[in-house]
Amino acid sequence: MKYTTKEAREILGVTEASSKYEIEKRYDIIMKKYQMLKTDGKLDEKAKADFEKNTDAYRILMGYEIDEPQEKREPTKTDKIFMKAGIDKKKVDNFFHYYKFHIIIGLVAIVLVALTVKSIVFRVEPDIRLGFIGEINTSEFDILGTKIKEQIPEIKEISFDSANYTNRYADPNEYANVSKIMVLLSASDTNVYLINKFAYDSYANNGVFMPLENIAKDFHIDISKSNYLKTRVVEEWEDPKLDQKERKVIKYRDAEPVLYGIDVSDSKFFEGMNIVGPEKILVIRTGTEDLDLILKLVKLFVT
User: Fold this and answer.
1) What DSSP string runs through 156-175?
2) Which domain holds residue 287?
3) CATH number of 59's domain
4) Which GO biological process entries does UniProt record here (predicted)?
5) For residue 21, what pLDDT is reported?
6) 287 and 168 share one domain
7) Are residues 132 and 78 part of one domain?
8) Please, are residues 159 and 100 in contact by the beta-carbon 8 Å criterion?
9) What are phi and psi of 165, to 5 degrees?
10) Which of 59, 133, 197, 249 would disulfide-bridge 64, Cβ 3.0–4.6 Å?
């Protein structure tokens, strides 16, 4: 060992009472000064020698070098590799000690990026996307997904989109949820929804849902319990005044009320499941073209 413990403390500028944390802190300062000189191109031979001296002192005080003489050992394969490359292994050890947290964080970041890329590359596209608007209970989604896949073998993967929307209690995130609903209904790939009555009353007359009377006839679905959902889509609204609570209709698109949703609240399929609140109204987004799986889902939900 080059120095005694007392000499090492004097070199590093610490006292006998200094803790290992204080010694680490002191060496950190020395390391930073050394790195600055190196970066600025001002590193001379004296600065190099001083840094090596401080490094030796630091290693002694931290217990990396012990007082007792050590038996001479043959260089390991790793030592030989460093020697052949002209690299000071002691400096490398110190570098990794000082920057270990930076290295760990960097490795974690690389792993996260790799996992993200993997999830994108190997992501399985869902066979169907099901949306929920109402008093959402996401804990039921897994149960619902399993039941659907059991009943419709063609559906291997299902994705769920949801937005909370209710008038039964105050929702602190109401504005954010309304914005999400607008995105779901206008810009997402989700075409079939289960919604509550409040959501149906809010959006059905805006023309976002497909008329379902013909589908109901084709599948012999009893819509007698859904007649209360018949409504007319508004083609033109009057510009609201500042003190006006409700918008006034100028022109309807539908001459007569049309069925845009089917009430499936009493469906046996949903027994024991509370997904969107007290009511479950099935709707299909207007403009939907590929109806094969969706119609199978409709048939399943109305049973």
Assistant:
1) --EEEEEEE--SSS--TTHH
2) 128-301
3) 1.10.287
4) DNA replication
5) 83
6) yes
7) no
8) no
9) -160, 115
10) 59
* Residue 188 structure tokens: 């997402």
Q: Which of 200, 259, 195 is nearest to 226 (CA)?
A: 259
Higher pLDDT, 29 or 245: 29
Instruction: Tell me, yes or no, whether 132 lies in a domain.
Output: yes
pLDDT, averaged across the chain? 83
Q: Strand, coil or helix: what is 270? A: helix
Q: Which of 58-62, 98-102, 267-271 has the lowest mean pLDDT?
A: 98-102
120 domain-assigned:
no
The phi, psi pair for 179, rounded to 5°, reads -65, -40
> Which residue would you say has higher pLDDT here, 79 or 303?
303
- CATH assignment at residue 266: 3.40.190.10
The candidate with the shortest Cα–Cα distance to 175, out of 185, 164, 186, 184, is 164
In the block, which residue shows the tokens 């996307």? 129
DSSP code at position 234: E
Residue with tokens 């030592």: 79
Using the predicted structure, report yes or no on whether residue 124 has a pLDDT greater than 80.
no
Q: How far apart are CA 143 and CA 136, in angstroms?
A: 14
pLDDT in tens, 33-59: 888 888 888 888 888 889 889 888 888
Q: Are residues 137 and 31 in the same domain?
A: no
CA-wise closest residue to 24 among 133, 90, 100 = 100
User: Would you mind telling me the total number of residues written for the chain in this entry?
Assistant: 303
Q: Which of 73-105 are b and which e, b meaning 16 or more Cβ less than 10 Å from the residue's Cβ?
A: eeeeeeeeebeeeeeeeeeeebeeebeeeeeee
Count the domains in the chain. 2
- In a domain? residue 119: no
Beta pairing, strands 281-284 & 258-259: unpaired
